[in-house]
Amino acid sequence: MKCEICHKQEARTKLEGRNEDDITYVCEECAARFENPASGDTDEGMFEDEGVEDDGPVQEVLESLDGMLDSIRKSLDGEAEPEKDDGAQSGGRRKVFPADEIPPRLSFCGLLQLEGLFLTGELSEARRILGAEDIRMEGLPYATLPETGHLYRLTYRGRLDHARETVQKVVDMEFSAREALRDELARLYADTTIRALAILKSAKLLSPDELIDLLSPMRIALIDGLVAGITEDAMTRLALQDNRRDYYRMNDDERAIVDADRADGINDIFEDVRLKWKKGMY
Asked: Using CA atoms, how far apart are residues 117 and 240, in angstroms rounded to an integer?
């Protein structure tokens, strides 16, 4: 059988996901790519932090992604430090909200995914609620699109339990937004995912930001059982496949070549992916 990532070479090994039945059969080249991320600055993770402390070790985001996800986890959660009972102090260094406290359905690439609130137009309200408690929503670094994928790392000051209460309000809002998308906003939901899949199947140029922007609503639809032909772990691997820092250091001509290769690969991967929307569902 052909590799389920590149669809070109013969599959000779398998990548296991979080679930027992979630297995992706890949060629040796793709296996090596996901087990050994590009060299360079990736060991510092997606974020470059100055004056930000990590609040505790995160449980494995995805057990099978021991290569690329390790670098993400390093940036999100370092060595644990005892939390001081400093009340509601607003001073001190900022700390990263633990990624393992984000519900799995809302965690994409180890970050908080608020695609639902974006689609329902409530993202600014979520930002206001968090900002009132000095909790920042930090988007992907090196991004060329605003709010790429609507994925955020949260940083806060003071006590974790206070931050946790506020973050839970936004988590509840996101779950409510996704419920609304399945019900009264189903037509908007269907339109967004149908457009995203069409581009993934046929785009001739795709930047890392564009890819993540398209994968974000598709991942929600996949969780809702509306996508067939690809796994959640495969989507995560695709979102993490690029060394973002190296990519945005390239000149325009170099990026164009990489974007063309990326688009061709994504076209192949999504060729047999389909949506399960039916008439009457929206």
From this structure: 23
Q: Of residues 76 and 103, which shows the higher confidence score? A: 103
- Which is nearest to 252 in space by CA: 216, 214, 207, 189? 207
pTM to 2 decimal places? 0.72
Scored b (16 or more CB within 10 A) or e, 232-243 reads bbbbbbbbbbbb
Closest CA to 269 of 220, 207, 204, 201: 201
CA distance 92 to 178: 35
Distance linking the first and last C-alpha atoms of the chain:
37
Nearest 5°: the CA angle 100, 101, 105 is 85
If asked whether residues 154 and 53 sit together in one domain, one would say yes
Residue 217 resides in a domain: no
25 conformational bin, left if phi > 0, alpha if psi -120 to 50, beta if neither? beta
Mean pLDDT of the chain: 81
Q: What is the pLDDT of residues 21-46, one digit of tens each?
A: 556 777 776 666 555 444 333 333 56
Same domain, 23 and 135: no
Query: What torsion do the CA atoms of 11, 17, 22, 27 make, to the nearest 10 degrees?
Result: -10
Task: Express each pLDDT in 61-71 by its tens digit.
Answer: 334 344 444 54
DSSP 44: G
Residue 110 shares a structural domain with residue 2: no
For residues 53 and 15, membership in a common domain is answered with: no
**How far apart (Å, rounded) are the C-alpha atoms in residues 221 and 213?**
14
Residue with tokens 């090994």: 13
Q: Tell whether 181 is covered by a domain.
A: no
Averaged pLDDT for residues 215-234: 97
Print the domain residue range for 138: 47-170
